[in-house]
Amino acid sequence: MNEALNRITELARRVGRNVTFMEVCGTHTMAVSRSGLRRLLPANVKLISGPGCPVCVTDTSYLDAAIELARRPGVIVTTFGDLVRVPGSESSLERERAAGAAVRVVYSPADALALARENPDKQVVFLGVGFETTAPTVAWTIKKAAQGGVPNFSVLCAHKTMPFAMEALLKDQEVKIDGFICPGHVSVITGAQLYRFIPERYGIPCVVCGFEAVDVMKCIAMLLAQIAEKRATVEIEYTRSVNETGNPAARHLIAEVFEESDAGWRGIGVIPRSGLAIRPEFARWDAGQSVTFRESKPHPGCRCGDVLRGVLTPPECKLFAKVCTPTNPLGPCMVSSEGACAAFYRYER
Hints:
Layout lengths: L1 H14 L3 E5 L2 H10 L1 H4 L4 E5 L4 H4 L2 H11 L4 E5 L13 H6 L3 E4 L3 H10 L4 E8 L4 H14 L4 E7 L3 H9 L7 E4 L1 H7 L6 H6 L3 E3 L4 H16 L5 E3 L11 H10 E8 L3 E10 L25 H6 L22 H4 L4 H8 L2
Parallel strand pairs: 1-2, 1-7, 3-4, 3-5, 5-6, 7-8, 8-9
Antiparallel strand pairs: 10-11
Helix pairs in contact: 1-12, 2-16, 8-13
């Protein structure tokens, strides 16, 4: 740890200017805050959080659609726990459950499929939220439902992919990014090749990073070294799990069940080709076919969108730790276990 910090200090001095690195993974967000890493870094090295929390980037219209489904008789909505407390326009899945709706927390989409088999008289909807990391498991479950003839199982899909969001941030005039701390979990599936276009097209260094504090420190040193040496490429710090090509079988499974689509990202808006939609041949298991996505807006004072773009840190939001707290969250960044506001509230207040 001390060796990595000394290396960072030396390289920051060589760089001789302010640099800002963005992490785009919620697990990194928590690791940075939990370890107090920001307080250890040289004054000219700044870390900001990006759109790496899948629950946080899910827009309000999706949540409203999920709430609409939960209100229907004979429907069981299944979801990972983080999504239950995220507020929609007027309610949340937690409030709907308290009012009698069948909202169940599951640990995998396979659990939701099993629930559908056990309850053939109910429609079981799984809320498919996440990046390339979780998309293969959802794709596998949809295939199993199709192969096993389970017509009462479906997925409300909001899966997203990372590269186009990273590119959108680089085009954002309000955001200044000198290097990306790239997500380890996503990269296990996609491989480091996913980010090659960033240094080639924009001259921005990228390093795929593991999840321990020492991983993050090594990653920062690798980014600083690229800047000091006036080069930009994709490097892998997380070599124990990530390679160049990733997991071809998982990528094939994603491509078999999903196709590219435009997707709405909280704080950024619609990013072309950044989403995954269920292919027409699996339309019977697409819950989005039976629900209307209406334009919805988050709480008027919530700044989650700006936090996700790296425009401001959570304490710069006027509601942070005052009106908006873990017991009374006004936005997903305070709810999710990977949210920047939750991380700052717990470790950096």
